[in-house]
UniProtKB/TrEMBL annotation:
An annotated GO cellular component: cytoplasm
Keywords: Cytoplasm, FAD, Flavoprotein, FMN, Nucleotide-binding, Oxidoreductase
Cofactor(s) it depends on: FMN; FAD
Entry superkingdom: Bacteria
Alphabetical GO biological process terms: tetrahydrofolate metabolic process
Membrane-spanning parts: none
Protein name per UniProt: Sarcosine oxidase subunit beta
Organism: Granulosicoccus antarcticus IMCC3135
One annotated GO molecular function: nucleotide binding
InterPro entries (alphabetical): FAD-dep_OxRdtase, FAD/NAD-bd_sf, Rhodanese-like_dom, SoxB
Length: 429
């Protein structure tokens, strides 16, 4: 494995620092330069990455930085940050149970911890912790097992009893008749990061190493002859490549259909909500253990929260009212004070829900064509490790050891990675 921060950025990159901010502030802010270039597409690249979301940009960054592959284009049909990377509720954690998942998410956590130094970009990474509430003895035992598994993978976890949790979160409704709160599984190193800054930071870092980031460039087809992919058709013309790496999250089914492939993935809407700004009240991230509700507080003071997917297949980036009610019911069950806060805004994003709730980072049956997707609603926290492992696969031809379980053929082999134990039901993962 490569070191987490091995090569220094090229000297031509404008470095950000407190001194630079001070100097620009005193000289009329005339020295800032655009954060990335706007190049026209070349006719050929070593690697084309389809999709300029977090995962595509992270892949480009690690390809250039860790593997020295810089003749790379990221093709984005909209603008950088327009997809789920700029729509999620920003939760970062590595509190998984299964051996196929936990080492991958812990690798991601370690990359998050060094991300701002690596990118020289303020991603507002805030390790305020996450606590998963438990509401029964059986759930406590399950969380104890998960916490032990996390520790075996080098992650941190603390099982809190009710007294310990009360100290941290006195405002929770411990005596709720239906869902009494008995304690929580706490991961202190978890937290939140500012999602669009993550996209911009990766874009800037990849661009600075020579990667072409091409916005408003939709991939409309693949050039495939004799089982080999040699490029893509785009809204800005045909571009050839030695390798094509698809990374389009909620559009996975539609894009891979252009290569004649059907995926074990459905697209669903997931909504997010933000309240008016409040004084600091939520210490980190809190998740409801008997329903689906998660909440944190942004630096501006808004409560940022969400819950279940809308539950029907859709490519629309907006949701419906029954889920708004369901999410708010979840919030009221654990912290009734949330009923006093006014909702400020809400939006939807497109989730690539896989059949076992786990992702794919793999070659496809077409030579030269690679696929990364199926992130469900956990893909933001995975961004660094997804880019790291996808870059490894593209550069070496071999799956990274931390992503070895994320094979496309796992439903044929039976080696599914079903973290929830819910079966082949995307709406339950
Ligand atoms: C409301 C909401 C809350 C969430 N909360 C969390 C959370 O708290 N924690 C967490 O870990 N995860 C969360 N997620 C999930 C996470 O955001 C996604 O799993 C992750 O962002 C997906 O990867 P990405 O960033 O690469 O996707 P995207 O940003 O969606 O990138 C894919 C890109 O591909 C582009 N594209 C599509 N088709 C084409 C084409 N034909 N040609 C060129 N480009 C194309 C799209 O325009 C898009 O920009 C949440 C998601 C949503 C919607």
């Amino acid at each position: 494995m490569h070191s987490l921060c091995s090569v220094k950025p090229p000297v031509t990159v404008m470095r950000y620092s407190a001194l630079k901010v001070l100097k620009e502030g005193l000289t009329g802010n005339r020295g800032w330069r655009p954060v990335w270039r706007e190049p026209d597409p070349k006719t050929h690249y070593d690697v084309i990455i389809v999709g300029g979301g977090g995962h595509g940009l992270a892949t480009a960054h690690y390809l250039a930085k860790e593997h020295g592959i810089t003749n790379v284009a990221v093709l984005e049909k909209g603008w950088i940050g327009s997809g789920n990377i700029g729509r999620n509720t920003t939760i970062v954690r590595s509190n998984y149970l299964l051996p196929g998942n936990e080492p991958f998410y812990e690798l991601s956590m370690k990359l998050w911890e060094n991300l701002e130094q690596d990118l020289n970009y303020n991603a507002m990474m805030s390790q305020r912790g996450i606590v998963n509430l438990y509401h029964s003895d059986a759930q406590r035992d399950a969380y104890a097992r998960r916490g032990n598994t996390m520790r075996l993978a080098g992650a941190d976890s603390v099982l809190l009893d009710q007294a310990g949790l009360r100290e941290m979160c006195p405002f929770l409704d411990y005596d709720n008749a239906r869902f009494p709160i008995k304690g929580g599984l706490w991961q202190p190193r978890a937290g939140t990061a500012r999602h669009d800054a993550v996209a911009w930071g990766y874009a800037r870092a990849a661009d600075s190493r020579g990667v072409d980031i091409i916005q408003n460039c939709e991939v409309t087809g693949f050039t495939i002859n004799n089982g080999k992919c040699s490029g893509v058709d785009t809204s800005r013309g045909r571009i050839s490549a030695n390798k094509v790496a698809v990374c389009v999250a909620g559009s996975s089914g539609r894009v891979m259909a252009q290569a004649g492939m059907q995926l074990p993935i459905e697209s669903h809407v997931l909504q997010a909500f933000v309240s008016e700004g409040l004084k600091p009240v939520i210490p980190g991230v809190i998740t409801f253990g008997a329903g689906h509700f998660y909440v944190s507080q942004s630096d501006k003071g808004g409560l940022v929260f969400g819950g279940d997917i809308d539950g029907y297949n859709s490519y629309a980036q907006r949701g419906n009212l029954p889920v708004v009610e369901d999410v708010c019911e979840g919030g009221m069950a654990i912290m009734p004070m949330i009923g006093r806060a006014r909702m400020l805004r809400m939006w939807g994003g497109l989730m690539d829900m896989s059949m076992d709730g786990s992702p794919f980072i793999d070659k496809t049956s077409v030579s030269g064509l690679y696929f990364n997707g199926g992130w469900c609603y956990g893909g933001f926290k995975a961004t660094p490790a997804s880019g790291w492992c996808y870059a490894h696969l593209l550069a070496t031809g071999q799956p990274h050891e931390s992503a070895a379980a994320y094979r496309l053929d796992r439903f044929m082999s039976g080696a599914v990675v079903d973290e929830r134990g819910a079966g082949a039901q995307p709406n339950l993962h």
